UniProtKB/TrEMBL annotation:
UniProt domain Major facilitator superfamily (MFS) profile: residue ranges: 27-420
PANTHER family associated with the record: INTEGRAL MEMBRANE EFFLUX PROTEIN-RELATED (PTHR23513), STAPHYLOFERRIN A TRANSPORTER (PTHR23513:SF11)
Protein name per Swiss-Prot or TrEMBL: Predicted arabinose efflux permease, MFS family
Domain of life: Bacteria
Keywords: Cell membrane, Membrane, Transmembrane, Transmembrane helix, Transport
Length: 444
């Protein structure tokens, strides 16, 4: 019997990829494409504004309610739409121009951000306003995020796709370092309103940058025709490929538990170390500093395999659990940098492996599944972590947030080993045992 996706989508053909480790002078080779340079500038503006708003939004809710659970609800409101409607977003991305979709989503983001800024500056903002605008922002993200993932292929083609994905991650993390710092300064000096206004203005600039893209130089993908069963088709395709299925499973677990930093760091800044909004911005910047380092390291990566994903999520979880035991701000901050490095190596490896394992005609739906578990998982994890923190404390929350993904990595490694896809290697190096995971050679 033919596979579920064989009639509509042949197995992914070998791609013309950059192989081997790049020389240092070509670390950012994808930026040699003019359209990708324009996109990267716009993306940096969008991500910086988004990070600024997210930090200000979470802190504003904490000020209005004094509750970590309320911060978790804010996170849930922003990511719940992806959990419920994420796959529909992938269908829209496969059917329509990614550039035009992004222009529409940025315009909607601008309206929502400026609206929240007005409410805050007028002094009439309430927690439910923030919840509602976070939910509306999440609805727009349902289309924006998969479109943002897939357009990279149209901008750079397949050969430099892995490098472009790593640069995109570097931009996100650079913004994640700049945005919280800006938010911290604004929160300390003028309040949350200007932070929201800044994000709205950034979205308008991004629309201008998208209009500057040279469409004639883009590797446009023909839109998928309307047909019944496209959601099921995308799911069957993803489940049939281990290089998509297992990264998605690990991303789902990590999103629910590991990617709850806004809730955790708000509690550490407020309750554990009592450093206020400035400290909250600092902690987020420490994570982003490590993540930027990890993203830059990922541009040097010569190959990505399932074992890369399993090892990196296990290491990330372990480091995050250790961070929960740190007694001082200095040690805690150092651990956050290490967590950022490991986390970004895991996320960029997963993103790259899933994209490069997907046929281009169905990539929008595959990436929408990826984004669904990545963002939708945080909709579950935000309130869950808020409850854990309020009942057991921030330290316990951090240990749980890292320990569960580390356990998931061990379980997936055992499953792959049982299916003869991975095996453990133990070697003695100068009388010291060294354990690693390797791909099993095929039988026969």
């Amino acid at each position: 019997m033919a596979s579920a996706h064989s009639t509509a989508f042949p197995p992914t053909e070998p791609l013309s990829l950059q192989t081997g480790r790049l020389p240092w002078r070509k670390t950012f080779i994808a930026l040699g494409v003019p359209n990708f340079r324009i996109w990267t500038v716009g993306n940096l503006l969008a991500m910086t504004g988004g990070w600024t708003q997210r930090i200000a939004q979470d802190w504003l809710v904490l000020e209005l309610t004094g509750s970590a659970t309320a911060v978790g609800i804010t996170v849930a409101m922003q990511f719940a739409p992806m959990l419920f409607f994420g796959l529909l977003g992938g269908v829209l991305v496969d059917r329509h121009s990614k550039r035009m979709l992004l222009i529409i989503t940025q315009a909607l983001f601008a309206v929502l951000s400026i609206g929240l800024a007005v409410l805050t500056l007028l002094g009439v903002v309430e927690a439910w306003h923030v919840f509602a605008i976070a939910f509306a922002t999440g609805l727009v993200t349902v289309v924006d995020n998969p479109a943002r993932q897939v357009i990279v292929t149209e901008l750079v083609g397949h050969r430099n796709l892995r490098n472009a994905i790593s640069i995109n991650s570097s931009v996100f993390q650079l913004a994640g370092m700049i945005g919280p710092a800006i938010a911290g300064v604004l929160l300390l000096t003028v309040g949350a309103g200007p932070a929201f206004l800044l994000n709205g203005i950034a979205c308008l600039f991004v629309i201008v940058m998208l209009g500057m893209l040279r469409t004639a130089q883009m590797s446009r993908v023909a839109p998928s025709p309307r047909a019944k069963g496209q959601l099921r088709e995308g799911l069957r395709y993803a489940v049939a490929k281990p290089t998509i299925l297992y990264p998605v499973i690990l991303i789902a677990v990590f999103a629910v538990f590991g990617l709850t930093m806004p809730v955790l760091l708000a509690s550490y800044a407020d309750d554990v170390f009592a450093v206020g909004p400035g400290g909250y911005g600092l902690f987020n910047s420490m994570v982003a500093l490590g993540a930027l380092t990890g993203a830059l390291l990922s541009t040097r990566r010569s190959s990505i395999r399932l074992r890369t994903i399993v090892i990196s999520v296990g290491l990330t979880g372990l480091l995050q659990a250790v961070a929960g035991l740190m007694p001082t701000i200095a040690l805690f901050s150092a651990c956050l940098v290490a967590v950022g490095v490991a986390c970004l190596l895991f996320l960029t490896a997963s993103n790259s492996l899933v994209q490069m394992s997907s046929n281009i005609g169905i990539r929008g739906r595959v990436m929408s599944l990826y984004v669904l578990v990545l963002l939708g998982g945080q909709a579950i994890g935000g309130p869950l972590m808020g409850v854990i923190i309020e009942k057991f404390g921030a330290h316990a929350g951090m240990v749980v947030s890292g320990g569960v993904p580390a356990l998931a990595a061990v379980i997936v490694a055992l499953v792959l080993a049982r299916r003869r896809q991975l095996r453990l290697q133990v070697r003695l190096r100068r009388f010291v045992p060294s354990v690693s995971i390797a791909t099993r050679p095929p039988l026969g």
